[in-house]
Write a structure and sequence with these properties.
By secondary structure, the chain is mainly alpha-helical. It is built from six helices and two strands.
Length: 140
């Protein structure tokens, strides 16, 4: 499941039914940058010919999800650190996408929702930055 799909799901199933206006463009921009750099990396012939570089890039792809961990944890549940998926507050073991953001929007706490959105976008941009370093170094 792509991050783009998760944003679409959030828009269709949470924001629209609540009939509120909430801007997701910072999150969409971060996802677009990550997708672009990841595609450039995966298609880079120079990296594919260099086994050390390929191993490093593959490691980054495998460990990339670690960038989605918040040091602060989710609002009200500091022990949950993953900002893209976590058990929903009222779902038992059921998973929720962008849990801190989704829960803040449902509570109509738009200040918290903006804070969560910006944190998620920053974490995604951090991963994109790591991908970007490989893209830049492969040109040198």
């Amino acid at each position: 499941m792509s991050l783009d799909f998760l944003v679409l799901k959030l828009t269709q199933h949470v924001i629209k039914p609540l009939d509120i206006h909430f801007e997701l463009s910072p999150l969409a921009s971060a996802i677009a940058k990550l997708r672009t750099l990841a595609m450039r990396l995966s298609e880079n012939e120079e990296i594919s010919r260099n086994s050390d570089a390929k191993d490093q890039v593959n490691l980054l792809f495998r460990q990339g999800e670690r960038y989605f961990l918040s040091q602060k944890g989710l609002p009200g549940r500091k022990w949950f650190k993953h900002v893209v998926q976590a058990p929903g507050i009222n779902l038992g073991y059921g998973s929720e996408v962008f849990p801190g953001l989704q829960e803040a929007i449902r509570a109509k706490d738009l200040d918290l929702a903006k804070s969560q959105r910006d944190e998620i976008a920053d974490l995604i941009f951090s991963l994109a930055e790591q991908f970007g370093q490989f893209v830049s170094s492969s040109r040198e």
